[in-house]
């Protein structure tokens, strides 16, 4: 049945046409300027939670188009879809995948229905694009139907998670690159500061001397460890349940469809996707999302700790550690003249807090699954997509706006080492712990230097021995001296 054109007008009064669409709940009028249909319209009315539409994640829209194209091609090969119709659907999917119709993907990222509204948004847009390619009007679903044709051999319960995993896999590529570049920038500072002497600290107390270069190189190592965890997570989410349909029994899918559609998806996406061995388990399992969320949280915790360190090391300038200078980006106070705050480490801290909280959301949503389906996947997708986006931007911002511009206050840092009681630890192999402890106690009580007490007053070692132990090189890269 063809839709009946209905004359309407835009808010500006310009005449336009609309079409009547129906579902089993009734009929609705939809402006012909929209490619989505009645089920998307209902979703727009029902879900106004985040205000963030599906189009905000273009990789997800692209992945949905890839899934629908692979399904059309597989259904064509298996004789389920007319080859000509499958070709039109595939062409429509190609156009959607380029982003041409992103403005038609408007359903809220958090929604009820396990993602049905997202799936139908894709089905309706693709059907109407295909209809126009066929020379038909939008809504002439006798010729290309959102459910019967675009959604053929599919359910939301396999199409949505498959597209979600494809989009996650691609989104993680950009995040991994951003994190790797941040780690490289710390490594470069490690090399730049390799001969800067500073005091190491434990529990915020003076510990033993070290190289500032080693401190920054350790930041790089700490973050590079996370690259392998990202790779592990990408490997987990390459497993898909396409062909499972409603609950994993493959109801309404022809024989051979699951393997064939997975093959087409590998070809279309360029990803090494793997069909799950147990489709019933794969349809409700969200363990891979929990793993990925945990990896994001782990990296966020590390990154936040590093930012805490940068804030401490740059504290001052007169009454703090003041070992490093962060690039001054903006005035820091509306009342205190001259104050400059470590705004980039602060914003990265706050990003990390969000990601840590989002991990709890993913955990609770994963646990809330019941029987053969987890209906909470939309909030999982929202949490993971936003966490990856925010972490990607945080890594880029920290590198570009902060790390590459850090400078060392080398003389000040070295002076603090020379005046520190902590250097007495270097004398343990020569004088023993009890003696060095008494030197430390006296230095603390009197304000005298370790050198003054050990060499000048107590004459526990010669000036030559002192100089051997406390060379610049031995303080930065110590060797055992007895």
UniProtKB/TrEMBL annotation:
SUPFAM superfamilies: L-aspartase-like. Pfam families: FumaraseC_C (PF10415), Lyase_1 (PF00206). One of its GO terms (cellular component) is cytosol. One of its GO terms (biological process) is tricarboxylic acid cycle. InterPro entries: ApsA, Aspartate_Ammonia-Lyase, Fumarase/histidase_N, Fumarase_C_C, Fumarate_lyase_CS, Fumarate_lyase_fam, Fumarate_lyase_N, L-Aspartase-like. Its EC number is 4.3.1.1. Residues 1-20 are annotated as: Disordered. CDD domains: Aspartase. GO terms for molecular function: aspartate ammonia-lyase activity. It catalyses: L-aspartate = fumarate + NH4(+). It comes from the Bacteria. Keywords: Lyase. Residues 1-18 have a biased composition (Low complexity). Belongs to the class-II fumarase/aspartase family. Aspartase subfamily. This is Aspartate ammonia-lyase. It comes from Hymenobacter busanensis.
């Amino acid at each position: 049945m063809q839709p009946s054109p209905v004359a309407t007008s835009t808010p500006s009064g310009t005449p336009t046409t609309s079409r009547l669409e129906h579902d089993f709940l009734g009929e609705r009028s939809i402006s012909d300027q929209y490619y989505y249909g009645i089920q998307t319209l209902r979703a727009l009315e029902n879900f106004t939670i985040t205000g963030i539409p599906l189009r905000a994640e273009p990789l997800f829209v692209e992945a949905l188009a890839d899934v629908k194209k692979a399904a059309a091609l597989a259904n064509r090969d298996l004789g389920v879809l007319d080859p000509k119709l499958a070709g039109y659907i595939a062409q429509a999917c190609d156009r959607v995948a380029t982003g041409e119709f992103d403005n038609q993907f408007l359903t809220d990222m958090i929604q009820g229905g396990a993602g049905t509204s997202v799936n139908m948004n894709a089905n309706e847009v693709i059907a109407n694009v295909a209809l126009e390619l066929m020379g038909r009007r939008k809504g002439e679903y006798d010729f290309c139907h959102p459910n019967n044709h675009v959604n053929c051999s599919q359910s939301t319960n396999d199409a949505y998670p498959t597209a979600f995993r494809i989009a996650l896999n691609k989104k993680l590529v950009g995040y991994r690159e951003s994190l790797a570049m941040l780690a490289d920038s710390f490594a470069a500072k490690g090399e730049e500061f390799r001969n800067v002497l500073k005091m190491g600290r434990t529990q915020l107390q003076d510990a033993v001397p070290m190289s500032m270069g080693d401190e920054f190189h350790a930041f790089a190592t700490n973050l590079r460890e996370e690259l392998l965890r990202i790779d592990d997570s990408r490997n987990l989410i390459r497993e898909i349940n396409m062909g499972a349909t409603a609950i994993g029994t493959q109801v309404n899918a022809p024989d051979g469809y699951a393997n064939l559609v997975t093959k087409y998806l590998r070809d279309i996406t360029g990803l090494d996707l793997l069909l799950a061995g147990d489709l019933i388990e794969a349809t409700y399992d969200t363990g891979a999302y929990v793993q990925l969320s945990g990896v994001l949280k782990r990296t966020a915790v590390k990154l936040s700790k590093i930012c805490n360190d940068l804030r401490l090391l740059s504290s001052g300038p007169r009454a703090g550690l003041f070992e490093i200078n962060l690039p001054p980006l903006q005035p820091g106070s509306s009342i205190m003249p001259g104050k400059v705050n470590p705004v980039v480490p602060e914003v990265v801290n706050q990003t990390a807090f969000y990601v840590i909280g989002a991990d709890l959301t993913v955990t609770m949503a994963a646990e809330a699954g019941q029987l053969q389906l987890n209906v909470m996947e939309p909030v999982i997708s929202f949490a993971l997509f936003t966490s990856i986006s925010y972490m990607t931007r945080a890594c880029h911002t920290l590198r570009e706006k902060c790390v590459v511009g850090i400078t060392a206050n080398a003389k000040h840092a070295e002076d603090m080492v020379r005046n520190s009681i902590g250097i007495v630890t270097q004398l343990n192999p020569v004088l023993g712990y009890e003696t060095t402890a008494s030197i430390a106690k006296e230095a603390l009580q009197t304000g005298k230097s370790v050198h003054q007490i050990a060499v000048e007053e107590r004459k526990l070692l010669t000036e030559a021995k002192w100089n051997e132990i406390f060379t610049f090189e031995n303080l930065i890269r110590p060797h055992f001296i007895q």
